[in-house]
Q: What sequence folds into this?
């Protein structure tokens, strides 16, 4: 396990500490003609050698180094201005996957793909996915009976901020419940109340306050029920 931690540490240092904004802009401008991408890969390989400090582990270092180059090169070639955020997360996910793949191929040969798709893991994945986009859509349908745009007119907010806040709060509630930290759920409700209801004191905000309160209770209620269901089925 310590070896796996070292691999992640090398990735974090190489991608977020030793990579400057200047080098990133140069890579995006010149793409594969930029020297920055090759320096970046070289830094990763050197970091892996220094942290692992074992020449016999060269296959895992080479695998991660080569895969890192192809992932970064694909990102530079295919990403557009509108897809930079998507490619950032895709890039990081692919790097993490390759670290796991290289580790289990060259170090831990006991790993089997079937161990991932256990009943408990599938149930957990299903619950987590349900609490994100599906519940957001369900709540949109529930609130479609009211004119939400009229209630929120004049109250500027970030695009889709409410949806993402709802997803995060449901996931947090779910995590608190399956880890048996119910007191944290109360703390989360209190914290949200302070932020969301603090400026809704005037009578003209009554409908908006009721809308937020109903949404919060439904969101938390679904997350709590999902957590209880998971604990009883796993």
A:
């Amino acid at each position: 396990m310590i070896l796996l931690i070292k691999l992640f540490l090398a990735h974090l240092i190489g991608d977020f500490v030793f990579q400057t904004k200047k080098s990133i802009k140069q890579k995006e401008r010149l793409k594969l003609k930029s020297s920055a991408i090759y320096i970046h890969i070289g830094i990763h390989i050197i970091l892996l050698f220094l942290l692992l400090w074992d020449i016999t582990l060269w296959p895992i270092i080479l695998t991660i180094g080569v895969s890192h180059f192809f992932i970064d090169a694909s990102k530079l070639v295919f990403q557009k201005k509108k897809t930079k955020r998507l490619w950032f997360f895709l890039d990081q996910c692919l790097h993490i996957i390759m670290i796991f793949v290289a580790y289990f191929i060259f170090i831990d040969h006991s790993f089997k793909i079937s161990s991932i798709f256990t009943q408990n893991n599938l149930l957990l994945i299903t619950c987590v996915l349900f609490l994100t986009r599906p519940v957001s859509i369900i709540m949109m349908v529930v609130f479609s009976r009211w004119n939400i745009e009229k209630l929120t007119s004049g109250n500027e907010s970030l695009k889709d901020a409410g949806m993402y806040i709802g997803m995060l709060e449901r996931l947090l509630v779910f995590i608190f419940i399956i880890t048996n930290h119910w007191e944290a759920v109360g703390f989360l409700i209190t914290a949200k109340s302070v932020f969301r209801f603090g400026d809704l004191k005037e009578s003209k905000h009554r409908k908006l306050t009721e809308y937020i309160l109903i949404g919060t209770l439904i969101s938390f209620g679904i997350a709590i029920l999902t957590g209880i269901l998971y604990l009883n089925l796993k």
In short: The mean pLDDT is 84. The first helix runs from residue 2 to 17. Residues 119-233 form one domain.
